[in-house]
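Help! Submission page says 'invalid entity' but I think these are all valid:
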Amino acid sequence: MTQIQAQPAQAQAQAAGRRELISFRIGAQEFCVDIMSIREIRGWTAATALPQSPSFVRGVINLRGAVLPIVDLAARLGFESTEASDRNVIIVAQIGDQVVGLLVDAVSDILTVTDDVIQPTPDVASETAKTFVRGLIAMDGRMISLIGLERVLPDHMELEAA
Amino acid sequence: MSMTVLTVDDSRTMREMLRLALSDAGFRVVQAEDGLHGLEVLAAERPQVIVTDINMPRMDGFGFIEEVRGDPSHRAIPILVLTTESDAEKKNRARMAGATGWIVKPFNPDKLVDAIRRVAA
Amino acid sequence: MDPLAAIRETFFQECDEQLAELESGLLAMEGGDQDPETINAVFRAVHSIKGGAGAFSLEALIRFAHVFETALDEMRSGRLEATSDVLKTMLRASDVLADLVSAAHAGEEGDDPRAATLADELKAMSGGEDDTSESEEDWGDDFDFQPQAVSFEAPAGPTGFVVRFKPRADLYAKANESALLLRELARLGEASVELDAHDVPPINEIDPEAAYLSWTVTLTGDMDETAIREVFEFVDGDCELSIEPIAADEAEAGGEPEFDIGSLLAKVQGDAPAATEEAPAEIEPAAAAEPEPEAAPEPAPTLAVVPKAAAPEAPADALASTGPRKTEAGATIRVDLERVDRLIDLVGELVINQAVLSQRVMEAGLARASAVAMGLDELEQLTREIQDSVMAIRAQPVKSVFQRMPRLVREVAAMTGKPVRLVTEGEGTEVDKTVIERLADPLTHMIRNAIDHGLESPEKRAAAGKPAEGVVKLAAFHRSGRIVIEVSDDGGGINRERVKGIAVEKGLIAADAALSDEEIDNLIFMPGFSTASEVSDISGRGVGMDVVRRSILALGGRINIVSKPGKGSTFTMSLPLTLAVLDGMVVSVANQTLVAPITAIVETLQPKASDVHSLGGHSRVISIRGGFVPLIDIGMALGYRRDPLPATQGVALLIEGEGGARAALLVDAIQGQRQVVIKSLEANYRQVPGVAAATILGDGRVALILDIDTIVSVSRGEMRKAG
């Protein structure tokens, strides 16, 4: 039933220029991504380390028979690497035709926002911020960065440099 | 309801060509790969017309036509022979076996459809 | 793809199947097969190709197939004896036919001079008659039961025709219908129809299979006789038919004010039911008791004009009661490969889940004999069986690859001037489709090599007291869960002195290297090694057995050679039955669990401190039976640790990598051997150097499968830099 109701709600949200975002914490920072790209959220399991990979790639885990790479989103966004423990969660996201796990501290909320609430990223932002941050949302006195996931996996340059 | 045509041919290419030509003309097409298979399909389907090849493994077209005509419940089904053979002796054998008509490959789809319409209602 | 293009592809696929059938049939006949079904199958193969070629107007192919078919027909009917020479010509013809098919497929239909020459030879065999003209007639799109004697030049002069038509019983026996013929006629112009029912006997004397009625149709309008003849083309010979032009004045007169075909039908319908209604009453009890359910559809010819709609119903109803309805009968079904692959994936997951579950139960401390543990054992058994059955869906006989070899042998034999007989065994041995697809190239190389290098020239063979014809044998069989393919020749065997000399000359081995016979034989697999003193067209181009070896290794296989001087050589390759699972050795390295493909591992050993020597930096070698091989620390190679593991604290896996180069891989410990399901790393991530793929172990964690060749070649590169 929930699904049946969710569908029209989502359609409505889109029709009205509204979108649903899922927000999560990395350290003291709050980020969000479009809920449409999220497949599931699961607890942390130890990953198998991959040789010759950038440090933000924590390795691979078994997701119901598929081999899923885990990206430490904190490290990816230029913060300190996450000390993963049972408290951490993995957000399983669909990026293009690949499925990737994002290691974050905790999932906090589902937000419904209209496009006009999303403010452009200020020019002062760092290169990393420019790569991933698509906009800023101010809500209840908090600042939440909207993240784009297209470039979360390492590209060839980074792979070779590693 | 559309008319059902049974095509019997050991060549996949030919079967596909026939399916294309005949279904374009609005017929329902059922297929068999040789005479024996044709008899099985015939027992399960209700074709109004049969189009059969002659040279086939297991049971050739002549044998197939004889079997069909030998079964009283199938005696009224028109059978068109579709084959590259065009010599008179083979045509005669097919006629003796009970074939309704003869079409030489490669077939012109329109003529085939015409011929089918002509032998069936 | 447009449907015709798709059918065209089907045609070429089918051609390949037919060509294989053709060749194996001819070879069987050459080997003494006299089964008439063999020549029939051979004939049908060419016949089918001709038929399809006709549909796509592939003229060169049609012409050649026709000549070929004619010769085969002569052979089939016994007029042409299947002598060895005749069959050799036929085999060459099958090669030409294959080339014409390829050319047509590539859209490069042109005149092949070989085709012309061979066509002449075939014609000569078929009795020399040039039947080209007949063949061209074949390709008209006429269809008939009568020669197209009536030409289109016939003047359409008269304003009408009188058609007299009296069917014989045969006409009905062939499922032709008078009513339909009359309807067709009525379409040609104004028709007036006279029914002559004078011959109809009293109803109780009616023979239901006989024909009693005749019709006279007067057609007026603009038409020609050809059109009328066409209406009757299928029934020519099964009826009395006369077609006479009517004089202009006669046409004017038009005869009596006849009813048109519609009213005729109405009239006959009106009459006919009356007859049927009466029939049951008057038919003798004997007839009524007849069990045949078909009295209605084939009643007397009086009912021949009963509207068609009613007729088919009866047999259909009869059928409905005689058997269950089936759609496509047949022993095989075609399944989209993707669906099979999906199923294989799912079974792979099932195997993993089952392993995870077993491990958890073990960890929970349940007794081996407990009901749960025993149930799990059964589940494991069942899971294995499901896996095997699913893998079997993709399995195909190696025949499809073996079939390509006879032609290759003929060609290489012709080029080298060595008469060769190919013997194949175990064509029905099955292996995964993907493995089969990747077998063709290595096999081609090996067969070429066997003829070019393995077999001696006829003179040398004669001098050695061997028959002039060399024998190359291709055999396949299953052995301990793998497929083994052997290519052997009865040639001179490997000239070890020469092989060793070349290897020294090319710097592949040290001049004073002490090698066993076996080691020398295996030198031919080293990259860049070629024994041909001059680069020939056949085995040259710098491509040799090293390429064969690499492609076999890439398939998780192994290859070796056993050679006996003067007697010949045998190449043996053993391959996994599928690429979806792999036999692995599970090892620990720096707290990681890794899997090494067992096929690459020659032996495992415990390094002794005295056998390990440092070359400076982190480069080490280990001495194994007097030879030195590089010792590669896997933990270092994959970046799992910064400092090398002391060799004595680990275990070395002696492996054979690309080109037969040996190396020892140092790991911390060996956990065991296990069959693992291969999982792609690239699906969600990318290729990782040193890692071939991933798998999921019993604890549910991902383990990486080592890409040994890459690890070895990278380490060698580093070693060279270091040295």
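Support: the input was valid. A stray whitespace character was the problem, and the output above is from the cleaned input. Confidence is low (pLDDT under 50) at residues 1-11, 156-162 of chain A.
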